[in-house]
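PROTEIN–LIGAND DATA SHEET

This sheet pairs a single protein chain with one bound small molecule, pyridoxal-5'-phosphate, given as SMILES. Inputs appear in the order they were entered. The predicted three-dimensional arrangement of chain and ligand is reported afterwards as a token string under its own label.
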Amino acid sequence: MMHPYPKAVTPGTGLRLHLNENTGGPSPAVLEALRSLAAGNIAFYPDYSEAIAAAAGFLDVPRENVLLTNGLDEGIHAASLAAVRAAATRDMEAVVVVPAFEMQPACAAAAGARVIEVPMGREFEFPETEVLGAITPTTGIIFITNPNNPTGLVVPRETILRIAAAAPDAMIFLDEAYADFSGTTLITDGLMTTSPNIVVGRTFSKAFGLAGLRCGAVVGSRPWLVHISRVLSPYNVNVAAAVALPAALGDRTHYETYLREVRESKALLYAAFERLGIPYWQSEANFVLATFGADASRVCRSLEQAAIYVRDRSEVPGCEGCVRITAGVVDDTARCVSALEQLLCGTR
Ligand SMILES: *Cc1c(COP(=O)(O)O)cnc(C)c1O
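PREDICTION REPORTED AS:
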């Protein structure tokens, strides 16, 4: 099965509410750190000790349980390759819960795995029974995204642990790209010993606003991290990201302020959807999925005319009629909401 990964249309200008980026930008300390890069920093291969220490400190785990990656995308890619290499069989299966973040099936397929898609329920309930039922002796990796993209819904902790226990030889890749916004993570002191097959992926693209620099991390037990590190190149993260990361993680005020803006923006979107009679899902991430039914594509195209970009997911199986809108800077959300209201109650 082919899983091409088409890049979303990415206009440089206009209001970008289609890729869950931080439109407010990173901490000023990041720009400061980038400006302080000297010729030597750029000429030499980067040293990651400060960046790893900062990531380990932020995630509250020992340094040896963290690998930095060129965005979480690379983490997904490397985890897929590592699972295929570690598998005892040549026809390894990757279980993906759909609708999914496209990189998961794309990377699993690129690594040579057979992708087994398990659909969510009609209201995007997590299909625990079906995932458990999909586990076979050839299952090498199971992707779980918590909170989920594109729904913003959470997967209960017990569900994740039950799946991990049911597939002890497989890697459970827990994509926590949006954990900053939900405030919950499975990364704890005990995780590496109680569920050594869970590898957690994190990104600094979303809450910390570093998407352009490409920086993420994978966290897990040593045996799985060793497998993953074997498929990563030694200088996978560039020097700009390496100096930016400690600066970003060091500015907790900027981070907390942004998390508050996201919560306020979600409340604005919920209120607007309620006024407009548009069903939506309560989100634990920095976006909201709503269903515009047959109007979805028309709404997206009309917003695009006003240079407001949202993510049309209406063609994605299981997501029919749905549109995903980033909730970030409150002023941006307010602009999107008023454009939506004009569009949907244009005659009033
Ligand atoms: C955005 C996103 C990523 C990728 O993040 P990068 O660090 O920018 O590569 C991974 N997983 C999910 C679910 C995402 O939404």
